[in-house]
UniProtKB/TrEMBL annotation:
Subcellular location as annotated: Secreted, Extracellular space, Extracellular matrix
Encoding gene per record: Chadl
Biased composition, class Basic residues, residue ranges: 716-735
Name of the protein described by the UniProt record: Chondroadherin-like protein
Species in which this protein is naturally found: Syrrhaptes paradoxus
Domain LRRNT per the UniProt entry, residue ranges: 21-55, 368-402
Top-level taxonomic group: Eukaryota
Any single Gene Ontology cellular-component annotation: plasma membrane
Alphabetic keyword roster: Disulfide bond, Extracellular matrix, Glycoprotein, Leucine-rich repeat, Repeat, Secreted, Signal
Function of the molecule: Potential negative modulator of chondrocyte differentiation. Inhibits collagen fibrillogenesis in vitro. May influence chondrocyte's differentiation by acting on its cellular collagenous microenvironment.
Signal peptide annotation: 1-19
Boundaries of every LRRCT domain copy: 298-346, 649-695
Family designation: Belongs to the small leucine-rich proteoglycan (SLRP) family. SLRP class IV subfamily.
Amino acid sequence: PSWRLLLLTAALVLGRTAAARCPPPCVCDNLRAHTLCLNGSLTAIPNTIPQLTKKLDLRGNSFMVIPAGAFLATPYLTHLDLQRCKLERLEEGAFRGLGRLVYLNLASNSIALLYQESLDGLSSLQQLILTGNRIEEIQPGAFGHLGSLTVLDLRANALVYLPDMVFQGLQVLRWLRLSHNALHVLGSEAFAALPALRRLSLDHNELQALPGEALARLEGATRLDLGHNPITYVAEEALAMASLKNLFLDHAALQDVAPDAFTRSPQLRTLDLRENQLQGLLPLAGVGRLVRISLSGNPLFCSCLLRPFHEWLVRARVQVEGACAAPPALCGQRLDSLRPQEMRCGHPQLLPSPAAPSEHPRAAGSRQCPQGCACSPDFRHGSCENRALQEIPQGFPKDTRLLDLRRNAFGTVPAGAFPGLKELVSLHLQSCGITALRPGALRGLESLVYLYLTDNSLSTLAAAAFEGAPRLAYLDLDRNTFTHLPTSTFQLLPNLISLHLQHNAIGELAEGNLAGAQGLRWLYLAGNAIRHIAPAALAPAKMLEKLHLEGNHLAEVPTAALRGLAALSELKLSRNPIKRLGDGAFLPVASSLQHLYLDNMGLERISHGAFAGLGPKIRSLYLERNKMSNIPDMSNFTGLEILNLRDVPFRCDCQLLPLRRWIDKLNLRVGATCGSPAEAQGLKVKLSPTFQTCPGWGRGKAGGASPDKATTASKPSKKKRSGKSPARGFKKSRA
């Protein structure tokens, strides 16, 4: 028919026209909508690429920089490959207009920094490949617009540190690949807000300890790769990942694994411990679903000390891979073929408790170990855990570095309780019924860094108790019976960094309480009964970065006490009975504050100037479960990565219109709902029809802008230039 001939002719004409626009040295396949410009000498993105191109391959060129709006002429792209293009910088807005792109490959370039707006406009992106660059730093918010991303590949870069909330916005990310970097520090909230993550690859980094606090945020992750890190020890309850099934700790430097290391990961099924330095293991607790454990390549000593572990393997029906390295008679024999009677006593390097007889008493006697305790000289650990001891035992090897005395009944720690332990680094005294730490109790512990006194009955501390332990940095006094902090307790601890005093009965912080704690960075006081903080109480801790005061009895923000805390980045005031926020409440820390927790307080009113001074540095703000009906203008909070407004009864009338317009432009799920009027109750603020009768409503909808101050933030204005429709932005934020 003539209409078919007409269509065919038109298609041929359009094809020839498109082919004629194909820029040299590119090859354009118009039928498949593919354009290839491979290994050429292009120094800029061609602006004559066919507009209907869906797949664009630019590998092997020399662009150096991707400028803003470089791909505005090809809005239908779904796949973009920029490998090996000598890229050093992505300008803000470089990919603006590519709302259909699902795959972006930037591997093997020289990108060193990801800016906050570098990836703006990629709302449909599912895979982002950044392997083999020189990325040293990721600015907060860099991934904030990638709400559809499922795979993020950052392998083989130069990352050393991951700050808190660095991956905020990646709500559907399933695989995060961070292998082959130089990571050795992870922020405790580095992996927060990744609810869909199932696999995390951290292998081939420089982690020296299991980053348990950061990993605990990954409640849904099922696979964790930590191999090829210099981790030497997995401590008790070190890993709390409720859904974890596969854990890889191969090719590390493991010398010991605590029996209850994985009790908080009850779904664990496979455990890979190949190529470490393990001479033995004890039965693992709390892993009833474990199916396989791999121990190949470890120097396993198959003596009687390994017999409990071997019996547990049989009893729990766990498959095991690995072979004995010693004694000579069993060298090379597979663990799963051993018989219990073959595993005889006589390990000259691992000292057993007296309950396990030794064939070499002279070897055992050549190194001391208190009766009833177990010493591991190779690991330099000593343990007398849960032995009903009433006095602290003495006579541990002088090179002991970790001493575990938990769950005993010491009552007091006398002066000189740990003679000769100059190399001791970590001391565990949790749940020992301790009521007093006598002056000189820690004398001689000149290398001590970690002291755990949780779950005891301490109500007071004298500064003299810390005499002789000048390097102490981490002091945990949670769940004791303190009602106040004795003045000058910390005078002899110049290197104290972290102080835990949570869940005590402290009623106030007075001037002088923290005297001498000039290096303190983290202060945890949650779950006390604090009603008052003296204006000068925190003054000695000028380097304080985190202050946790949630769950106390404060009736107002302790503004005066915050003066001088120029480094404070995190403040938690949740679950305090603070009903009103006055003007300038956070002004003393406005230049440094990044994370502010004001949730669950029964907050009824926030004054217009309450957030004065706060602005782009604020990255997370928690206001959920309060009682206010409106909040002041926050349009200058342009760096927000988390804003939680759930369970706040907003009055959705015209006074709330500036807030409604502002959250409409955020790429965040804020959870704001209407509490009134009746016709809007329970609706999301964005969906409430009550705003449609407000003056200026039509102008704001049509023009995408408003004279209201709340709509002038820099980030939303950039999103409008990207060409996204109002409806598209409305759907993404789900406020």
